[in-house]
Structures are given as structure tokens and as C-alpha cells.
Amino acid sequence: MWYGLLGFVLLLAAVTGYVLYWQGRQLQVLKEQLEQQEQLHKKQLSSLVRRLDNYLAGSMQMGKELHELREQFAPMPDKLLQLEQRDPGSLSFIEAARLVGLGATIEDLQHACGLSQSEAELLQRIHGGKKAVD
To answer: How far apart are CA 62 and CA 127, in angstroms?
Structure first.
């Protein structure tokens, strides 16, 4: 009877040893997979950091250029006002150019701004973009 019990205990110990070995092996496989995932996440994170740095650098450059453009064009309304006050006749041309941008025809320009037909056609060609003159 002791031999049967001893055999059972040895069998139980062997099975337990095998289960522990198998679980240890599974743990090692999971550990390797976790390390691979960590490496992949680190690569993705560094890629995202580089992209963010590029976006920030581009945004800062655009901000500088926008600031320079604001400084460059800030005096434009005053200069335009000075030009309009210097030559009152040019006001009709400025108004005509604005009307062309809004889609006015040659006849509209002649009546609204007092332009000749050739002046109206010229403004239409200059400021009308791709619109053809009839």
C-alpha cells in the first residue's frame, strides 16, 4: 500500500513539475511578446514625436511669415487712402476694379463710373481674370 501511495505522490509530483515547466515556458513566451510590443510602441512614439516636431517647426515658420506679411501690409490702407486723395479721378478706376471683381459688365462700368468703353474693356480684361470680353 505504501508503494501505491508513493507511486501516486511521485506521479503527482511529475505532473506538477510538468505543469510548472509548461507555465514557465508560457510566461517566457509572453515576456518576449511584451518586449516586442514595447519596442514597437517606442518606435511608433519616436515617429510621432518627430512628426510633431516637424509640425511645430512648420507652424512656427508660418507664424513668422504671417507676422512679416502683417507688418508689410499694415500700411497699405493708409497708402491707398493717400492715393485716392491725391487723384480723385483714380477713385472711379478703383471702384470700377472692385465692381469688375463683383462681376459687373462693361456697360455697368460705363454707367456707374463714367468710363469710356475702351477704359471699361481694359479694366474688364485686367481685373476680370479668365472672363472673356464679348
So the answer is: 29
The distance between the two most distant Cα atoms of the chain, rounded to a whole number of Å, is: 128
> CB-based contacts of 84: which residues, under 8 Å, 6+ apart?
90, 91, 94
Burial of 100 (0-12, 13-18, 19+ CB in 10 A): buried
pLDDT tens digits for 14-26? 999 999 999 999 9
Q: Could you report the per-residue pLDDT of 56-96, keeping only the tens digit for each?
A: 999 999 999 999 999 998 888 887 677 666 655 555 777 88
Q: Give domain limits for the chain.
A: 1-74, 76-127
Report how far residue 55's alpha carbon sits from residue 62's, in angstroms, rounded to the nearest whole number: 10
